[in-house]
Amino acid sequence: MFKKIFFILTLTMLVSTSVSAQLLYKIEGPNAEKPSYIFGSHHLSPISIVEESGVMEYFDQTDQVVGEIDLTQDPMVISMAIQQYMTAPADSTLSVLLKGENLDSLNIQFEKWAPMPGMKLQMLESLKPMVVTTMLAAKMSTEVMPGYDPSNQLDSYFFKTGAKEGKKILALETPEFQGEVLFNKTPLTVQAEALIDMLKNPEKSVETSRHLSEAYQKRDLNAMLEMSKDEDGHPEFMKQILFERNSNWMEKLPAIIDETPSFIVVGALHLAGPEGLLQALSDLGYTLTPVY
Q1: Angle between helices 175-183 and 129-144 (to 10 degrees)
Q2: Per-residue confidence (pLDDT) for residue 211, from 0 to 100
Q3: What sections of 40-167 are H helices per DSSP?
Q4: Would you state the pLDDT for residue 231?
Q5: Mean pLDDT across the chain, nearest whole number?
Q6: Residues 216, 220: Cα–Cα separation, whole Å
Q7: Does residue 145 register a pLDDT over 90?
Q8: Which pTM does this prediction carry?
Q9: Residues near 182 by Cβ (< 8 Å), separated by ≥ 6?
Q10: How far apart are CA 260 and CA 35, in angstroms?
Q11: What is the layout of strands, in order, in the sheet containing 287-290?
């Protein structure tokens, strides 16, 4: 269960088995005058992959940037919108949920991976365990993803570049919706188990992040998909964080693609498998062509 939660978080902070090593796909449809493109992002990837992949050539051919949430907004506004979902009930704070554990021992590991020097686990007492796990997952990912800059994220780069160039900006979700899915859907006891496992076995967490990063850098969505199957210990979380959101997005994407040539950027795992976006678009008659 923990490995599944960590796996999703490292991508969230993939396409059918016939698709191999590629992140960018051209979308053509009978009702679309011009093609759109969909790009599988790793939210913790350095933006150097933009130049390495040549993706901007296709970005420039579109008139609109579409993503999970509008990242042209002030980060503080986004944080405030999500904050209400991050706070734990008064009877379910960290110390309550971690009761019976050696908090001093857990804190030693936490301090090694804390987002800021000197931060202690007790300082986050009022936050839900999943919030803390997300912080740690992001920090661990920076150890294995050279060049990642939290102030210059890959998804944000596309949004900010698009806005600067006068492209339309469209979000598939609100920050509030993401906050609900990430922090409210999974029971707090399950969140606590994942946090405990991460702090007791940080080496395992780093190794999982390393394998994911290597697969992404190779543009190997199939490898990421197979890893998700191997580590699927919490299918309900997978359903909520991926499949249900894919289904919601598919209620919007056809009209978006038909009306405006768009550059669509979402987490890479959303592209993958029989319930992924590429398969769903193909089922509706769109032609998906990998762009090498």
Answers
A1: 100
A2: 82
A3: 48-53, 56-59, 75-86, 94-97, 103-113, 129-144, 154-164
A4: 54
A5: 86
A6: 6
A7: no
A8: 0.86
A9: 12, 85, 130, 134, 241
A10: 9
A11: 168-171, 64-67, 262-267, 36-41, 24-28, 287-290
